[in-house]
Amino acid sequence: MMSSLHRDPVLNIDRMDAANPKGVSALPLQKITPASATRGSIPRWVRRFCGPVLLVLIWHVASVSGVLPGEVLAGPATVISSAAKLFATGELQQAMWISLRRALSGLAIGGTIGVTLAVVAGLFRLGEDLIDAPMQMLRTVPNVALIPLLIIWFGIGETPKVALIALGTAFPLYLNVYAGIRNVDSTLIEAGRTLGLSRLAMIRHVILPGALPNALVGLRYALGIAWLALVFGEQINATAGIGYLMANAREFFQTDVIVVCLAVYALLGLAVDFTVRTLEKVFLAWRPAFNGT
């Protein structure tokens, strides 16, 4: 029997009549491209840069036209010149490294405490009864209000700064990891029990992977809080760091240096957030997600 092809007006490809299934092998394979992928011709990374570039342009025009006086806020050109001077002397790199080290140290300590307590409270009812209520009480206490106590306990060195960051980052990780564990689909739990998984295997292969999306969201929140706590922490008799540069610039009304420090905080925060986004793509590749329209 001769095979007969006809043109599909919807898919715009040659299709085989149902009466000739043997002719399917003669059809060329075609890649199907989603309609959403062909709508825009501008790359996404270009569109993501448009907002910040537009904001800097508005800032520059306001500074050049005199709408925004230099005494109130230095213009982009002045800020870039000040950043270049600080970079040339090495002050900026040293301050960035010290601040980043403080933030990551506090995040490591606070994250370890928060995740450990969340796992214990999430997996065991006794752990929830003993841990959850104190954590809910402590998370409502403003971290800034603890600065006098931290100074009394740890002095005015590096320890109170790191402790303040650790306190600020422990709670968002605890809340999100705890919620992630308790919100794992019960159908998956029953499926694991049906397959005969042990308790340890259930935790490793079902519960913890199911809680990972919430844990990464908590990590992003914790990183944002880490930078906020760092700003306050570096006001505690700091002798180095971005906060130290800001404090000196405030004394001499150097708004350009203050803006440079704020920009460094923002860029460091953007860098660590990009790192978390990359981790989400790597560890959550198994989970289909909505990417927008």
TrEMBL record:
<dbReference type="Pfam" id="PF00528">
    <property type="entry name" value="BPD_transp_1"/>
</dbReference>
<feature type="domain" description="ABC transmembrane type-1">
    <location>
        <begin position="96"/>
        <end position="276"/>
    </location>
</feature>
<feature type="transmembrane region" description="Helical">
    <location>
        <begin position="103"/>
        <end position="126"/>
    </location>
</feature>
<feature type="transmembrane region" description="Helical">
    <location>
        <begin position="162"/>
        <end position="181"/>
    </location>
</feature>
<keyword id="KW-0812">Transmembrane</keyword>
<protein>
    <submittedName>
        <fullName>ABC transporter permease</fullName>
    </submittedName>
</protein>
<keyword id="KW-0813">Transport</keyword>
<comment type="similarity">
    <text>Belongs to the binding-protein-dependent transport system permease family.</text>
</comment>
<keyword id="KW-1133">Transmembrane helix</keyword>
<dbReference type="InterPro" id="IPR035906">
    <property type="entry name" value="MetI-like_sf"/>
</dbReference>
<dbReference type="InterPro" id="IPR000515">
    <property type="entry name" value="MetI-like"/>
</dbReference>
<comment type="function">
    <text>Probably part of an ABC transporter complex. Probably responsible for the translocation of the substrate across the membrane.</text>
</comment>
<keyword id="KW-1003">Cell membrane</keyword>
<feature type="transmembrane region" description="Helical">
    <location>
        <begin position="257"/>
        <end position="276"/>
    </location>
</feature>
<feature type="transmembrane region" description="Helical">
    <location>
        <begin position="138"/>
        <end position="156"/>
    </location>
</feature>
<dbReference type="GO" id="GO:0005886">
    <property type="term" value="C:plasma membrane"/>
</dbReference>
<dbReference type="GO" id="GO:0042918">
    <property type="term" value="P:alkanesulfonate transmembrane transport"/>
</dbReference>
<feature type="transmembrane region" description="Helical">
    <location>
        <begin position="225"/>
        <end position="245"/>
    </location>
</feature>
<keyword id="KW-0472">Membrane</keyword>
